[in-house]
Amino acid sequence: MLARPFRRTEGKCGDDKSELMFVSIVYRIARVCQERSCAHARLENTRSGGEDSRWESISCNPICYTKVSYARKIFAGRRRIAREIEPKRRRGKTCMNTRDQIEETLKWKLEDIYATEALWEADYAAAQAQVAFFSSHAGKLAVSADALFAALCDDSSIWQLVERVYTYAHLHKDEDNGSAKYQGMTDRAMQLYVSAQAASSFLDPEILTIPEDTLLGWASEERFSRFRFRIADVDRRRAHTLSTEEERLLAMAQEPLSGADNIFTMLTDVDLDYGSIVNESGETVKLTHGSYNMFLVSPDRRVRKDAYETFYKAYRGMKNTLNATYATSVKGDVFQARAHRFAGALEAALHGNGVPVAVYEQLIEAVHEMLPVLKKYLGIRKRVLGVDQLEMYDLYVPITEDGDIDMPYESAKALVKEALKPLGAEYQQLLDKSYAEGWIDVYETPGKTSGAFCAETYGTHPYVLLNFQGKMDDAFTLGHELGHAMHSHYSATAQPFETSHYRILAAEVASTVNETLMTHHLLKGEADRVKRAYYITQFLESFRTTCFRQTMFAEFELKAHRMAESGEPLTVESLSQMYRALNELYYDGAHVDDNIAIEWMRIPHFYNAFYVYQYATGLCSAVKLADDILQGGAVERYINFLKSGGSDYPIEELKAAGVDLNKKESILASLRVFAQYVDELDALMQ
Ligand SMILES: [Zn+2]
User: Fold this and answer.
1) How far away, in angstroms, is 140 Cα from ligand 1 center?
2) Of 139, 420, 532, 553, which sits with the fewest C-beta atoms within 10 Å of its C-beta?
3) pLDDT tens digit sequence for 53-63
């Protein structure tokens, strides 16, 4: 299958930034499976209605539908991502306008996708017919270049139609999730998607039956140019593809092999009772994932401590079960990697996105080098909090006054535009276009999907959903989403459909570049000490949680898998000892206690191994690019990066933009920005 379009990149929700960029990025970043095909991430929002009201306030988490058989796992993943996120603080809006009370200029224009629903129906029918016809290509691809070309063209045509049909229906549903009409249309579009997925599932495996020389010879013909990257990428999997019968057997084992993930989700989301604590007002309240995160930012240290200790007590009570579950997951990864002839689980996981192992290793090395700066930052935190010993439950509480100032929408638009001036005149014009031409759905209305996201559909401008509440944080959300929108716009205008969808590792770069430019801009013109400290702390927290913490996670995953690969037992003791040592290394300056030593038991992302490093590389790439842009001379290569879409592996696209993740220096350059701001905060907070 070629493009799995439906990109909805997003969901910045937490206005509480304590788990900050982790929140934003985790939450924003597209979930993607480790396979090649997930370049075509289809993202879905997480508003779960009655299923689990705990997540209701959390806006959209993207999920990848690339493989229908993964759907269940991915849905589980969606909930897990949500759980790491601070619940959105309701800003106490008691009334809101209905859609017809909102000015037309503040709503998106879905009629730019289909002017009438009759046209939607016509495309729906056309797609259905094409899907029905598609199976006639099966078994013929190897016959001739013409046969392969015809199948690839039909595949493209189907997915362009499905993307349009799906996006139109879903965005209408996002306007009001209670609409039976658009629920129905979305369901039909989803069925169409599933049938298209099933109909084209033979394509890649059959391409691999064509001898390599023949395949690459055909692909060198001019007419194949838009399919060339895809063909080369499929061909790259040859060495790790088994016989048809062996692959069939492994596919059958997929579900039981992903069982650990399901058990973890059931245990930690449903069965486990986290107990209760007494809150700041003296009321006894139940601990949940959401309330735990809120208590960790409580100014009352007793509340933070109680929440922390009570929460971990629940995990400790299930330590053997959680250990067995995680060990099973790791062993499953090792089995899959070995079955597909990879050197190890890490190598297998990185292969899909064409990421060299060196990228992973360099990230860890670079972060290690800068740990003394993190120690200095933790020292500032300890000093400002005035505590004798910085405990793990002291890491999230804000250390500055709240600088999340009021910001009406018009001012937010002006701020974003002004802050993004370094990106050049064309980018400025595109921002004007996005403001004026129905790209953005600004305000909250009854039934509207919460949070924020950006959706794209080839041939139409991108769409941004906001729930703008008039705070500085909302302005950052606008800038973030417009980063995605411009990435989509540039990709779609510069690339054919087949290579227009950028991959996960690149997905959060453009949005984070915009946020970083906004931070630099605000700081440039800000003399007020309190506001400066606030902006800087926000930025530093994003580094701590997105870069340092996720790299520590990445290192844990690597060590756990290497232990399994070398036959070392994965026990509560061995894993906790290893995780404790990592915390002592990364959080030097804080008190590493027995509770944090078992934190690995509660991290949902560990069931999607070797994924989280991308949060760190994404942030570092964006900060380095923003820095280069501000130094001058990097705009053109940055815009070219946006234009490159999915025409190459993200590592190569980033390299062309000036960020070579194969080299430690790229990560270090961004961490030096962190170091500069730590120094400034140190001076400000004296
Ligand atoms: Zn995003």
Assistant:
1) 41
2) 139
3) 222 222 222 32
